[in-house]
Each structure stands twice: as structure tokens, then as C-alpha cells.
């Protein structure tokens, strides 16, 4: 990504481990320490950390017998019932999740939700061409996806499920306890813990190279992808936000991150767009380069337009949409990222610039029309929800991985 260096004070305490004990995925250490100070080692220490609250809950639930505990937890979350039948570790996870921390500002969350809704289906394109593609550049970060077959073999379905997660998160009050976004986030958190446990048991998981599966550092990176990268990508193609709106979007996704199990110390760095971008810049510098798995994921993601083409018109449009999507990848990401992922059609950045001019004109109208913010939010929300409903084909997501390479398949049952 093309970024301007931002001077931000690092967190004052912990690197959690010594400099010699980082996984090998932590690249360019000398440079990172010179440029980012203590922040670099502090962040890299999180490569070793999982989500203790969810990990303990999964261990206790799986001890109840194959699938029984996980089903009970899901039913308790969905119905809002008494968790008395669940083991203590699972009850603790629910109890913590049902009480939002004091720093949560509900009005700010609502503004962040409405602001995000204005993007409509464009948010899905930005997510896939910027947030996900940029994440795929890390050969270490993609390993849990590859080992669970989440996007290389089931790209259309998993992208639709991610879309459902986003749609419910950006509803006003969607992340409040008992609401759909809250429920989905808890399900995803638990499934991440299931996968983490299965991968840790696999003799093929190279912890010395990759760290903990689905670790805190990568979880924080996901928050950045949904918030800071989304805002920056949207601005690049013509969308406009006030400072208050951008801050509200960051706040909304910090609440999502907290509910997902991200360490509050990391979230403190992600609560401000400027500081989050500084972290994102650093992450780019210390990640290992793309490998064959990265390319496979990127190409699978490119193929979703053909997979969703049901009618003759859809099949005619699919190649055009794929090329436009390629143009977005080249627009949002640094050239070396798009090249490493073997993305063609660089010339389609011209089409992106043309569409961006239309978006800018529409944004000028919105800013000068009384009541347009809510109107745009309602329309964008409806379009995005309809789009995701179409992709899901009336099959609601369960976020359960179907396989784990080299792992105990009973762990994901």
C-alpha cells in the first residue's frame, strides 16, 4: 500500500516475549525497530497469543462429547436462554460478551453503522479487492484459511458468509447483546477457537514459522481490514466522510474486535484511524511475502463472479466485473502486491477512475441535500442486504469449517 509515515507513540509496556523468540514470519526486524521503535516487537509478540477466553470455552465444550457442547452453546446464543447447562468456561465467555465495556459509545456505533451502510454494494467490492487481497500477501497469515479450505475451495460461499457478518455488524445496534451481529460475531469467535485448537494439534502446523493459529496480531489485522482499509479504499473511489463519521466507523469495528476476542491493548491502537493506519503500515513491512497459497486464494477470489453467474446476462457480465475487480486491486494495493498475487488487467484502473467520478458527483449531491445521509444509508443497506441474500441462496451461514488439513477432524465436528 502507498502510505505516508505517521508518527505515533508506541504502547508503553510489554513486549510479551524476548526478541529472540519471535516466529520467523516477523521479517525486517531491524528496519521495523528503527522506524517504529518498541511498537514493532510489542505487536510481533502477539503472534504467539490466541484468545484464552474462547479457547478455554471450546476445550470445555468439546469435553462434553462430539459436537454436543458446541451445539448447546450455539442454541444458547441464538435463543438467549439460561446458560446453566454449559460448563463454567463457556458461561464465562457468554457472561463477558453480554456486558459491553464502559468505553462503548452506542450513539457512535449507530453513526458508524449508518456511515458504513452508505457504501452499499461498494463495500463488498472494497472488502474483496483491498482488505482481503492485501491480507493474502502474507504467506503466514493465510495458512489457517488454506488449511480449512475456506476460500480456495469454497470461495463464493465463504465470501457470502463474510458478507452476512458485515451486514449484521453494520446494523444500528447490531452488536448489542442479543442482536444478530452480536450472535454471528460470537459464533465466529467460537469457530476460530475450534480451528485454532485443531491446527495446534496438527503435526504439520509450523508454530516456529507462523506462530499461534489465528493469533491476536492477525485478529487485529482483520479489524484494520474491515475499518481503516475500508475507509481508505472508499475515499480512493470517491466516497467522502467527515472526521466524526470516520471515527464512528473505527469505533464500531473496535467493538466488533472486542467481541471477537481482540486484546484491549491492541484495540487501543485501532480506535483511531490515524493510529490504525500506522499499525497497518508496519504490518506490511514485517509480513513474509506471498507464496503459492496466497496466489491460490487470490485467484479463487477473482473467480467468484463466474461462480455467482446464474442467468445469461450474469454470465455475460461476469468477465467484465472480474476485470473491474482486478482494476480495483491495482488501484488500492501497491503494485508489488497485485503482481505477487498474479492479478492481471492493470489497465482496468481506467474504468475504476471513470466510476469514481460518478461516485464523487453522487457524493456532492448527498452532502448538499437535506436528509440525504439517512436516505443514502437506507438505500445502501437495502442493496447490500439483498446482494448478500442472493449470494447465500437462502442457506444461512453456520461458519463451521468442514475440514482441517492434518488436524483432528473431530475437533471441528
N to C succession of SSEs? HHHHHHHHHHHHHHHHHHHHHH
* pLDDT < 50 runs, ≥5 residues: 1-16
Whole-angstrom Rg: 21 Å
Into which percentage range does the β-strand content fall? Answer: under 5%
Major pleated sheet = none
The coarse overall form would be globular
Q: Termini separation (Å)?
A: 39 Å
Rounded mean pLDDT is: 90
How many structural domains does the protein architecture include? Answer: 1
Please tell me about this protein's structure.
This protein has one domain (19-48, 105-173, 206-404). It is mostly helical and 413 residues long. It is globular, with a radius of gyration of 21 Å. It is 64% helix and 0% strand. The protein has helices at 29-36, 38-44, 52-62, 68-79, 88-97, 106-117, 122-136, 143-147, 155-169, 180-201, 207-210, 216-226, 228-236, 243-260, 264-270, 273-286, 292-302, 304-307, 312-332, 335-340, 349-368, 372-392.
SSE topology sketch:
Blueprint (H helix, E strand, L loop, with lengths): L28 H8 L1 H7 L7 H11 L5 H12 L8 H10 L8 H12 L4 H15 L6 H5 L7 H15 L10 H22 L5 H4 L5 H11 L1 H9 L6 H18 L3 H7 L2 H14 L5 H11 L1 H4 L4 H21 L2 H6 L8 H20 L3 H21 L21
